[in-house]
Specification:
four-stranded antiparallel beta sheet, mainly beta, single chain, 11 strands, 49% strand
Length: 128
């Protein structure tokens, strides 16, 4: 059973930066694809970014391209989300998720229903 724990959220002004971390345990981390999702109040959970097992393949939602960077350190069983030039619309509860890296289609890694293991979330609030 894989467990993931997010950290690094907080309150930041628009234009600022935060780095989220997600520590995984209980499985072979290098065999898992990792994703970040977010959910704002009153809205559905949405995809933010994903990274395949090696870290060499990444996927982003359009609204964060050029501002957010997902990366992973398989030696530390950790995935990161570097968020720059934050906007008030980035305010949400950010979740980390994991699944075996075995999907047939690259785009499937953006679908929350494909992920098996989820953390409790870390709050990101961006003030204007």
């Amino acid at each position: 059973q894989v467990q993931v724990v997010e950290s690094g959220g907080g309150l930041v002004q628009a234009g600022g930066s935060l780095r989220l971390s997600c520590a995984a345990s209980g499985g072979t981390f290098s065999r898992y694809a990792m994703g970040w999702f977010r959910q704002a109040p009153g809205k559905e959970r949405e995809f933010v970014a994903a990274v395949r097992w090696s870290g060499g393949v990444t996927l982003y939602t359009d609204s964060v391209k050029g501002r957010f960077t997902i990366s992973r350190d398989n030696g530390k069983n950790t995935v990161y989300l570097q968020m720059n030039n934050l906007k008030p619309e980035d305010t949400a509860l950010y979740y980390c998720a994991a699944r075996a890296d075995n999907l047939s289609y690259y785009s499937d890694y953006s679908q929350s229903r494909r992920y098996d293991y989820w953390g409790q979330g870390t709050q990101v609030t961006v003030s204007s």
